[in-house]
Amino acid sequence: MSFEPTDAEVQSFHDHGYLVLPCRFGADDVRRMRDEADRILELCINSSLANQRKSGRLNIIQRPGGPQVVRRIQPIIDLSLPLHQFSHDPRLLDPLRHLLGGEVALMEEKITYKEPLPTPVQGLPCEEDMDDRFVVHSDWAYYKDQGYPKGLISTAVCLDDCTEASGPLRVWPGSHLVHREHERTPFGRQVLPHLLDLHGGEDVLAPAGSMILWHAMLVHSSRPNVSGRPRRLMIYSHYLADAGLGFDARNGPLRLAESPWEWRYQRLKDAGAFQDVFHAPQFPEG
């Protein structure tokens, strides 16, 4: 079975720089991905506590007077066989092969959680930040430093409904046609304010199981998640394999740096010297 996009979808992607493919993954697949997201969250936080150092994979903030919020865990597929298998799924790869015009290679992968923790995790270092927003930027502003091509595409599988309250992906349609210079801010690289209306953009709303694809040069952001629930996106980024950029150049060093600490955590558990104290919060459906 082919999962190639229609001609209209291809044209929409080229015109606007992004594409929404609703409900490509069914409820069982989404449930498996959510379970893996919970397991990875537990591993990264408990490993951090056992080793008395925050995992380099884990991006977590403390909101002043509010909850701790997990923003992102990256990289992840070396921690999860199911999420590794999903990275080879034709539902994911067929649209990319068609849009990029050839075989594709995985550049990086991550889960953006935007997940509030109802109970604080004591002893876990967190940077203080006002909220879990992502500033107005294009991915290529980062990727160009490693020599990746402009035509790179990221694909987000929605593990939760993306609603106005959940801080969904926000895009500037057509902005992928011209690269805009960025400035460094405390919150990451951001498009220079005089080059774009930073308060513009359009929210991308989609139900769980949908896929959102966007061009590496598309300007995007997200507002804070005020829903009280996680807004998890399983994101895979690909480029044409014949670019010859090697394997796992972007995330490989971090995997190697964190693996010894994760194995130490497992050995401490096996020896009875550490017991897991964090369990992923469960949120009601709907």
Automatic annotation (TrEMBL):
SUPFAM superfamilies from the UniProt entry: Clavaminate synthase-like (SSF51197)
Parts of the chain that traverse the membrane: none
Coiled-coil intervals: none
Keywords of this entry: Dioxygenase, Oxidoreductase
One Pfam family in the UniProt entry: PhyH
Cofactor: Fe(2+)
Family annotation (InterPro entries): Phytyl_CoA_dOase-like (IPR008775)
UniProt xrefs under Gene3D superfamilies: q2cbj1_9rhob like domain
A molecular function (GO) term: 2-oxoglutarate-dependent dioxygenase activity
Protein name as it appears in the record: Phytanoyl-CoA dioxygenase
Organism expressing this protein natively: Chondromyces apiculatus DSM 436
Highest classification ranks of the organism: Bacteria, Pseudomonadati, Myxococcota, Polyangia, Polyangiales
